[in-house]
Amino acid sequence: MGLGSTLKRKLGKKSKGTNTPGSQETESLQGSQAKTVTGPAKTPDGSNTPTSQERRDLQGIQDKGKTAVGSEQVKSATGPGIALSNPRIVGPPRDVSEVELGFQQIHHPLDLQTAFEYRPLQEGQIRLLKIVLPGIYPWCSLEDHYIDNAPPYAAMSYAWGRPIMTRAMFCQYYNENMASFSISEHILEALNNLHGYVPHGSLIWIDGICINQKDPVEKAAQVALIPRIFSRAQKVLCWLGKHADQSDLVIPNLPRLAEAVEQAGPQGTLSIQPADAALWVATAKFFRRPWFHRLWVVPEILMARELVLVCGDKAVSWNGFRAAVARLTAISLNFAEPGLAEHFDSGGRGIVELGRWRDRIQGLVETEFSTHEFIRLLLWSCQRQVTEPVDRVWALAGLAPPHMRQAIAHLADYSDHARSNFHNTYKAFVRAFLLHDERLSLLALVALLPRHPNVPSWCPNFSHFLEMRQEGIVQLWHKRYNAGYTDDLPYKPDVLFLSPELNQLKVRGFVIDKIHRVGTLVNKANRGVGNDQRLLYDSWCWEVAKTVYGDYKEALDAHSRTLIADRWDHVRHMLSRDGNADGCSVPDLMSVYVAWVKSLQDGFQPDAESVEMQEAVGMFEEFCRITILRCYVSTEGGRVGLAPHAVKTGDLACIFYGADTPYIVRRTEDGSRVMLVGDAYVHGIMYGEALTMAPSAGRGPDEEFVIE
């Protein structure tokens, strides 16, 4: 398929301070496949390589694999001590045409069920896999170890996907008899391609084998240990899959592509040579692989000490890959084949974001991984793919702040009932979180994730797939807001769940205002698509602000701060990061916005010839992404603000004690209960001002809100 002739650089995406990996780094990784994790172990005859008899035995299985065979034939072919649950290999005979790493792959389905039986694990134990002999039907063994004193091991990160073919391996516990073990095609490929990184006798953790997937109790307990499993592994091998779609070209050429993007310049375009068009297409298809979009990859990457990405027989370190991808995401691609640009964009941005989270988790940057950061991670993860809806919370539970991790982790449940009633899992997760969170921060996700019919309004719908490219926002909650507490009045939330079914939540607070006017939803339809639409929207908002405040200067201050939720700190950070300011001399965007507002007052006639004005307007629009998916509103008490997209006239703006932001609620018909609409920015009450207001200023009496 063809590729567009130019690649345009995105606004504000240029990365600084990252080193493009040199080709020698990739080559050194490829040449280090013989490096062991623990050190070579001996085979039964005392050597470091499989015996000739073992190879003949294995070849016997391979030869018999072309036709159906009976039980006695299998027994004689495999040797004594191997148990087969269903010793029948089916499928039409095929020529062996594909050879990968010296092992012949016979491509037909294998009807060979698992005869292997797991032994129960003790609390704190994990299983580790030893690859005795790779091949068409690998021979492996499992060992139980306590995670706190386990021997050195590697761990594998991969995408489960849907098994296209069923394969088999033979597995034993220590010196017990071997038994057949059904595995996916994907795991078979990994075992035979990663043996260079986990050579004969070394140990590796692979969840599809090391966890008894048929035991929901064990699965829940092991899932809670995954962050520790990956943090203690000497190396994490990210298996992306075998070569396909010219993927063997991608990893070696990433440094060259990154360098070409870098040379294009901040405002330049990149000319694609015909010889490189196929490489760009291969790179986009590379990012289409499921591993780049899978949720379970997140804790595996964030907790790993050392990461190596492997695709077929090509490999690259995490740091080198991340640095190259960060430069590639500074461009916008147009492909002739539908969907490729989206996969390239989302896959690349995912790597960049995972790198940032990894830096926070591992303390490589000053930003603390706080409760707010964990909630941001929960929201960000809603764009990633899962097999089970319950994975939306259990995949990340082990990354929660320490003071609430245990309360959340013990709730993990993979029973059939819990998986089919995942909304109950979400309620239990949110309940445990809120009882340990002094700021009720998780309630902020309600505004961004549409309500599920089986969960109350206070429970975020984590199963909703959130398109972050369209959303593209900086969330309202932030530790610099303190609407429901101050240093002098450190209120703590009073949270109570009123029924065993967890359908009602009671919080304490008061009403501060009522929504009077609701503007258009701020989204792509009125941000950055055309001056006419933008003018109409901005003009309406500005007229509302002038009506509410009367005084021009006061209206301008309230209006401009509201449009970006008073996040001038974020604006300055964006300017400094993008090279538009040196961090010491940041331009005052307020004056820029004054000029823009004045142009609105002059009959929608901004100076189109003013390059400075156009750049300023575009810059301000970029900053207004902070408020995407929020509605501009005014209140009866004389304030402007930003409210969730579901807000309606007559809804109440409330202060919950201890909360960072005000919240919008809607009373039921009888007035005894409320529905939670979501968090809001209401200018003038974001920093504890409402706590000291007198009733005459509009503050309502304290009450207990029963949220259903």
Summarize the helices and strands and which ones pair or pack.
Elements: E1 6-9, H1 23-30, H2 52-64, H3 71-78, E2 82-83, E3 99-100, E4 103-104, E5 125-133, E6 139-146, E7 154-158, E8 166-173, E9 178-184, H4 185-193, E10 203-205, H5 207-210, H6 216-232, E11 235-241, H7 250-263, E12 269-271, H8 274-286, H9 297-303, E13 307-311, E14 314-317, H10 318-328, E15 331-332, H11 340-361, H12 371-380, H13 391-394, H14 402-409, H15 416-420, H16 422-435, H17 468-471, E16 496-497, E17 505-521, H18 531-549, H19 552-563, H20 568-577, H21 589-601, H22 611-623, E18 630-635, E19 640-644, E20 652-656, E21 663-667, E22 674-679, E23 681-682, E24 703-707
Parallel strand pairs: 2-9, 6-8, 7-10, 7-11, 11-13
Antiparallel strand pairs: 1-12, 1-15, 3-4, 5-6, 5-10, 8-9, 13-14, 16-17, 17-18, 17-20, 17-24, 18-19, 19-23, 20-21, 21-22
Organism: Aspergillus campestris (strain IBT 28561)
Biased composition (Basic and acidic residues): 53-66
Region (Disordered): 1-90
